[in-house]
Specification:
By secondary structure, this protein is mainly alpha-helical. The protein has helices spanning 68-71, 75-81, 88-102, 106-125, 136-139, 144-153, 159-172, 176-195, 206-217, 221-232, 239-253, 262-272; strands at residues 2-9, 16-24, 49-50, 57-58.
Length: 274
């Protein structure tokens, strides 16, 4: 992965500031909800930008979504931006979903909520987003005061000790209800996109597989099973998608809400043959 700092101009308020931008990255497979695997998990902090002046949130703040200048002043947007239930980074993704909803782009709004869910999930694992960014709120999923307190506590110790302390603090702040709400919002947006014919995944059956994963992770096993079966009825789906859907059914039957990859699905059926 390569990321560079660039000067950008906010398309809403005109404020000139610096943002980090990903210029290249490698992909190494993905989870069943299409999130990239561990090697590039921390890159999520580079996938959203927010203007430090007007609080416009977008993948690229130098490009304006129609009517964004009005949306960012609404009660819904302001309350979401400042909501203490979610990590700040998750709030930025959720705010972007509100902007996308205003222009009826439910597919992208769903993915923005999924990214918010991934940020919340990372807190459970104590993931630290390195390398550090210009914007503190995108570096960590804890408050600046907690960060400074921990830095004083481990003063004189090594970098590994500092990271361990930060990771423990992040884990303490994990809120399972926040993660669940993000997935529920994503599911609602995806279903609306599906109803309107807005594709949120390219290959056949992948949309149903992602929806199945969301439902399973939420513990809604009956609905998840129906969605997986719906996906398996689609003709011409790729082998890896079919294996993922069949693997989902195995997980649903044992009421497993854990996170798995497409590779896990493939390995499961390879091992089952012997």
């Amino acid at each position: 992965m390569e990321a560079v700092s660039r000067e950008v101009k906010c398309a809403v308020c005109g404020y000139v500031h610096r943002q980090y931008v990903i210029t290249s990255m490698l992909t190494c497979g993905c989870y069943l909800d299409l999130r990239p695997v561990e090697q590039i998990k921390a890159l999520i902090s580079y996938e959203i930008q927010r203007c430090p002046k007007c609080h416009y949130c977008a993948l690229n703040v130098s490009e304006k979504v129609p009517n964004a200048e009005k949306v960012i002043k609404t009660k819904e947007y302001v309350e979401q931006f400042n909501c203490s239930k979610f990590p700040k980074l998750a709030n930025f993704f959720l705010c972007y979903s509100i902007i996308l909803k205003s222009v009826n782009d439910y597919a992208k709004a769903g993915w923005s909520c999924m990214r918010a869910a991934w940020v919340c999930e990372d807190m459970k694992e104590g993931v630290i987003y390195f390398p550090p960014k210009i914007d503190f709120d995108l570096m960590y999923t804890i408050g600046r005061e907690d960060f400074e307190r921990i830095r004083e506590q481990v003063a004189g110790e090594g970098f590994d000790e500092f990271c361990d302390a930060i990771g423990k603090e992040i884990k303490k702040n994990y809120n399972p209800e926040a993660e669940q709400e993000c997935r529920e919002r994503a599911f609602a947006f995806f279903m609306k996109a599906k109803k309107l014919g807005q594709r949120f995944a390219k290959r056949k059956g992948v949309e149903e597989e992602v929806l199945t994963d969301i439902l399973r992770r939420l513990g809604k096993f009956d609905k998840a099973l129906k969605m997986a079966q719906e996906g398996l009825r689609i003709k011409g789906i790729d082998r890896d998608v079919r294996l993922a859907l069949e693997f989902q059914i195995k997980l649903i039957k044992r009421k497993d809400t854990s996170c798995y990859t497409f590779d896990d699905a493939s390995k499961f059926f390879d091992e089952e043959k012997f």
